Amino acid sequence: MKKKVIVLGAGLVGKVMAEDLSEAFDVTSADANEEALQSLKQKQIKTLQLDVNDSSKLQTVLADFDLVVGAVPGFLGFKTVQQVIAAGKNMVDISFFPEDPFLLNDDAKKKGVTIVTDCGVAPGMGNIILGYHNEKMEVKKYVCLVGGLPQVRQWPYEYKAVFSPIDVIEEYVRPARYIQNGKMVVREALSDPELIFFDKVGTLEAWNSDGLRSLMKTMPQIPDMIEKTLRYPGCIEYLRVLRETGLFSHDEIEVKGVKVKPVDVLAKLLFPKWQLKPGEEEFTIMRIDIDGVQHNKEVSIRYSLLDKTNKGVLSMARTTGYTCTAALHLLANDKFINPGINPPEYLGKDEINFNFIMQYLKDREVIYQVEIKSIS
Questions:
Q1: CA 208/CA 191 separation, integer angstroms
Q2: Predicted confidence (pLDDT) per residue in 259-305, tens digit
Q3: Which CATH number applies to 125-308: 3.30.360.10, 3.90.180.10, 1.10.287.600, 3.40.50.300?
Q4: 278 with 121: CB under 8 angstroms?
Q5: Which superfamily does CATH assign the domain made up of 4-120+316-366 to?
Q6: What pTM, to 2 d.p., does this model score?
Q7: Any idea what the Cα angle at residue 352 is, between residues 94 and 15, rounded to 5°?
């Protein structure tokens, strides 16, 4: 009998994960928005209208499932994972919530459940790759450059949101933390921009973002670690203008006697312009550099990914979603059992599991090119 999996969230990524998992599991996709479920119904995937904020209903629903996938917006993620733990279910999550997931570690251990958090592309695959190499070498430096962009640049934004837009805005305001010379550095988001050339893409703009997340806690021995977000050149300028004007603020202001949050007004105006139109394509680009010592030699390892919309399936949904579904297969087949909170770097520690994830992605045409150079 197939194991029963519920995917919480039927956004662009959640839909793709539900479809992928339906080949091996009895899958139900749940979302508060009935309209979001329609396309899955047409593909004969079970659906359920469910508001994850309704804790009592969520607990009742979860009781019928063996495994859970979390694909809700970040502001709902922490509470949702909490509820899944209370229900005693194993889970893989991509909600990228801002809270520290390790706050839930004791509860998960007491319940004996394995929870894998941040299991997308970045955070996600970057962590898995670093986790793998950290077991085999002394890592001295880790740099992750990553971005998702529309194939065609269109003025004025030259950007499209393929996951929760409110989470995208969070990237532009949350202070960026990175490790330099063994110490944490905190800089404002969008800081330290630089132009970087990529084959087949051209020059992109990179800036500091808060993407290291769990790595700062799980790998404190690595003296230099940083993640930067990639966008088309010029993007940072208008984002800074919007931010400095106060349009990203959650603090209420009064306009003609009505209290509103500037970010809500911005979202109402901006999000429709960030939506991909039917037929529009996008791509995901990621470059990971790991420098260190292996077998007494200085080595530099580079992973490169350039993935494009494939057969109508968006790249960001593929690169994020298939990483998550690969991890779910590991949990479902008891290949990864570790009660508690597990950031994705824990998955990468085991070579067999690492190779499984890489092959799983390759089978779905998400291919990471690997280059290893000996420095000394």
A1: 5
A2: 999 988 888 888 888 888 888 999 999 999 999 999 999 999 999 99
A3: 3.30.360.10
A4: no
A5: NAD(P)-binding Rossmann-like Domain (3.40.50.720)
A6: 0.94
A7: 25
